[in-house]
Amino acid sequence: xxxxxxxxxxxxxxxxxxxYREQSEKKTMSLDTICSxxxxxxxxxxxxxxxxxxxxxxxxxxxxxxxxIFGTIEYI
Length: 76
Prior knowledge:
Elements: E1 3-8, H1 31-45, E2 55-59, H2 66-75
Parallel strand pairs: 1-2
């Protein structure tokens, strides 16, 4: 089991085959929302002693928002 957080729909590649390219509204999560997701996931794993889980950031291009990635890591 792991946690995957889709930070954003934004991408800087503009690949011709990408269906997201034509979306007019591209969204990005706030750090508060990401922290709420982490809390929710962590709360539900408390019943499993010694549980650890991988965290994956994905989306259009999550590295466009390093502040969200580092902020999440600091929060955890």
